Amino acid sequence: MAWMLTDLPNLLTLSRIAAIPLLVALVAVGRPGTDLAACILFSAAAITDYFDGRLARDWRQQSDLGRMLDPIADKLLVGAALMMLVGTGRLGAWGLYPAVVIMLREILVSGLREYLAGVRVGLPVTRLAKWKTGVQMVALGTLLAGDPSAVLLGVSWLPASAVGAVLLWVAALLTLLTGWDYLTAGLRHASGAPAAPAPPPRPEARTG
Fold first, then answer.
1. Three-class DSSP labels, 66-113
2. Dist CA 161 CA 39 (whole Å)
3. Taking Cα atoms as reference points, which of 175, 132, 138 lies closest to residue 160?
4. Of the ranges 2-11, 19-28, 108-117, 143-152, which is most confident?
5. In the chain, fewer beta carbons within 10 Å around the N or the C end?
């Protein structure tokens, strides 16, 4: 177990969890410089989500520990970013709705994965779920930066907050679609209905 924690893929996964307290502190300060730093930190953490799975596959270091930690790290990072954006009033009234949808979907999928793991059924990550994750991460990074960061970077003409809000709605729509797919798959197994055989999950699919 100890050596698994020192594998680079798992270290990258753990780095996303370790980044959360610093991310929260940077957002709480609420200065243009710290907002930009929060965006950079969040983006760097989000990028590790790609590399941990890629390296685990290429180096043949896939493990049950990594498959457990990866979705936990993703959901903690996303949840912390959303709560800080809501708590600091950066989402606005309309931005609250996609945030609620995203959080509820994460809880739903976590519950489904726990149930299906108990009956030894996997929940493969779909391509649409990967697109959802990508759009969601870009949306949150842009919202964390906000308009003050755009001014700081000399691109004051860029409505960063508005762009982030639109992308968050797109992510929420993809969240509903993928959440429905996962829910129907879970209900199908729970009801004992026969299902078409699904292809085995790809080794690099560690998120969703």
1. HHHHHHHHHHHHHHHHHHHHHHCCCCHHHHHHHHHHHHHHHHHHHHHH
2. 12
3. 138
4. 19-28
5. N
Cα distance between residue 63 and residue 99, in whole Å: 31
Q: What is the pTM assigned to this prediction?
A: 0.81
Helix pair 127-152, 32-58: axis angle to 10 deg: 150
Structural domain span for residue 45: 2-191
Q: Would residue 206 count as lying in a domain?
A: no
* 207 is a domain residue: no
The 10 Å Cβ neighbour count of residue 30 is: 15
Q: In 3D, which of 169, 157, 161 has the Cα closest to residue 88? A: 161
159 within domain boundaries: yes
Q: What is the mean pLDDT of residues 70-94?
A: 89
Nearest to 149 by CA among 42, 75, 49, 50: 42
Ranked by mean pLDDT, the top range of 87-96, 99-108, 136-145 is 136-145
Assigned domain for 15 exists: yes
Length of the chain: 208
Count of domains in the chain? 1
- Using one digit for the tens of pLDDT, what is the confidence trace for 56-74? 676 676 666 667 788 888 8
Handedness of CA 139, 166, 130, 124 (dihedral sign): positive
CATH number of the domain bearing residue 126:
1.20.120.1760
Token digits of residue 62: 């896939």
Query: Residue 201 in 3-state DSSP?
Result: coil
